[in-house]
Amino acid sequence: MIAVVGAGAMGEALIAGWIASGIEPAEIAIVDASAPRVAELEQRHGVRGIDLTDTAEAETIVLAVKPYQIPDVLESLSGHLADGALVVSIAAGVPLAKLEDALPGAAVVRVMPNTPALVGKGMAGIVPGAAATGEQVERVTGLLDAVGSSIVTDEAHLDALTALSGSGPAYLFYVAEAMIEGGVHQGLTRAEATALVTQTFVGSAAMLAESGKSATVLREMVTSPAGTTAAALRALDDHGVRAALLDAVEQCRTRGREMAEE
Ligand SMILES: NC(=O)C1=CN([C@@H]2O[C@H](COP(=O)(O)OP(=O)(O)OC[C@H]3O[C@@H](n4cnc5c(N)ncnc54)[C@H](OP(=O)(O)O)[C@@H]3O)[C@@H](O)[C@H]2O)C=CC1
Ligand SMILES: O=C(O)[C@@H]1CCC=N1
Predict the structure, then answer these.
(1) Which ligand is nearest to the CA of 77?
(2) Nearest CA-CA partner of 75 in 100, 103, 50, 116
(3) How far is the CA of 259 from the centre of ligand 2 (A)?
(4) What are the Pyrroline-5-carboxylate reductase catalytic N-terminal domain coordinates in residue numbering (predicted)?
(5) What is the pLDDT of residues 125-147, one digit of tens each?
(6) Which segments are annotated as binding site for NADP(+)?
(7) The dihedral formed by the CA atoms of 149, 152, 153 and 154, expressed in degrees to the nearest 10
(8) Whose CA is nearest to atom 5 of ligand 2?
């Protein structure tokens, strides 16, 4: 049994992705502070709500509560884990050391997933803790690869990874929102603008993933000399969009580091 503690946005993305990948809903249990939320997910996905103490029966316990809620959950779990249980924390900015100190001897793995797991296109970074066996790391890798792709990395790189793939979907949705608004300003209906922008994201992502060409070359392919794209990119440069993205990635990484100290 996989128990997901904290069935919010990311918890549900993983659950839905796992079920779509073929994992039986009966194999998944959820714990959440909100009874209506548990009922909603039971109805939508066919998973079952359990109490935190029932996670003692789970082989894999995924901690998906907000980072500041992690200490309380760890305190409740301490001393109640099954032999061989694996604890997977997806909380941003909660170091392995804090997790391992609260669960002495337990196998712990830190993971940074992202919400596209919901549609089987997730990206995740995996950091094995000291007591995690090779089989347990493979189990986690299998669970993340079932909903997209993953890499095993060092904890030192996890905040940077969070700044790209963990939080990254939000930057792209932000750009999509702004482009849709731009289309509406030009007189397109919101539905037309949304369809145009959505398919442009899908096509561009597929080219980036499948063409073998760099983002730079793909951008140059669109940019005809003295043409429309060059004018648009000039406006982005004038507004400092590249610098803003560099700063956004840095601020995200820095916030992850700060959270580790809170
Ligand atoms: N959202 C994302 O894209 C990503 C999130 N993460 C990480 O995932 C974690 C969850 O984030 P997110 O899904 O956005 O947050 P949410 O607030 O959507 O989900 C957290 C859920 O946990 C519930 N909860 C709170 N306390 C407890 C408890 N003691 N026991 C069980 N459930 C509890 C919350 O209920 P209530 O709201 O009532 O408090 C809520 O439903 C965070 O640690 C975040 O860093 C990692 C990668 C990506
Ligand atoms: O915003 C957050 O803190 C979480 C972690 C990565 C994405 N969402």
Answers:
(1) 1
(2) 103
(3) 11
(4) 2-93
(5) 999 999 999 999 999 999 999 99
(6) 64-67
(7) 150
(8) 92
Q: Is any atom of ligand 2 closer than 6 Å to the C-beta of 163?
A: no
Whole-prediction pTM = 0.96
pLDDT, tens only, 25-76: 999 999 999 999 999 999 999 999 999 999 999 999 999 999 999 999 999 9
Q: Residue for token digits 């963990």?
A: 166
Atom of ligand 2 nearest to the CA of 167: 7
Distance 217 CA to ligand 2 centre (A): 31
User: Cα–Cα distances in Å, from 261 out to 4, 68, 127, 256?
Assistant: 25, 11, 19, 9
CATH no. for 168-261: 1.10.3730.10
* pLDDT at 82 (0 to 100): 86
Question: CATH number for the 2-158 domain, one of 3.30.200.20, 3.30.360.10, 3.40.50.300, 3.40.50.720?
Answer: 3.40.50.720
Angle between helices 190-210 and 168-185 (to 10 degrees): 140
**What are the residue ranges of CATH 1.10.3730.10 in the chain?**
168-261
Atom of ligand 2 nearest to the CA of 166: 6
